[in-house]
Amino acid sequence: MNVAIKCKSCRFDKCILAGMRIQTIRGFYSRSLPEIYELIEQKRNELRAKGKYIENVETKSETYIKPGSLFVNKDNLIIDFLISVEKNAKRCQERGAISLEAIGFVLKNGFFKKPPAALMEDLLLIVDIGKTMPSFNELDLSDQICLLTQITMPLSILLLAYYSYTKKYNAVIMPTGSGLSMALGFSGEYYKGDKTIAKLSKKVFIDSMEPFTQVQLTEEEYVLLRAIIFCHSFTDGLSKQGKNCC
């Protein structure tokens, strides 16, 4: 697309002609996905009437949505949107290999001697995923903080566990391509002899993988499960208005 085009209407037309992906649209939180689809289809028809054509019509992205009947399948649109968000999140999640020096530091000093950058990145990623949820954006700031305070750590483990499951590991691994288990960070010199830590580490980073393997969780089921956690209306501390939004 020609980024030199400064007119918003012209840029929007160009996006439509290039095959706009409805799943990547952010904003329009007061509208449902079918309504957004109808608006885009209306604009597309206007461009056709002017003699213009849809670019890359034979090679549309697999994420392009076309209704199978006269009615848009709302459930499929929502799931397709959530999967698109997940694919973008996975690209952000995958990081370069961890250095031997960093591994040695963790084994000697534990995970929290120095705030782990990977954990901070995961927490920020969860916040960014939350912003794609219409219900999250309807919450007041205080309710957003309340919700995130209670769901970010469970979601962080879920995010890492599902990533490990898709890579066919039996333990939660670091998203570095190295295959190193997260449990490694709690098995070094710093935690040596601490049976409680060893027990909890096994429960969180090894035993937690069993349900994924047993159930064979699909991508659709995973993104729906994550969305349900983001819409947890029974979170302690949420205002009455916040519970209604969720």
Automatic annotation (TrEMBL):
Limits of the NR LBD domain: 86-246
UniProt-listed InterPro entries: NHR-like_dom_sf (IPR035500), Nucl_hrmn_rcpt_lig-bd (IPR000536), Nuclear_hormone_rcpt_NR2 (IPR050274), Nuclear_hrmn_rcpt (IPR001723)
Gene3D superfamilies attached to this UniProt entry: Retinoid X Receptor
Domain of life: Eukaryota
Key words, A-Z: Receptor, Transcription, Transcription regulation
Database matches in PROSITE patterns: NR_LBD (PS51843)
Transmembrane region(s): none
PANTHER family, A to Z: NUCLEAR HORMONE RECEPTOR (PTHR24083)
Protein name (database record): NR LBD domain-containing protein
Species assigned in the record: Meloidogyne enterolobii (Root-knot nematode worm)
Lineage: Eukaryota, Metazoa, Ecdysozoa, Nematoda, Chromadorea
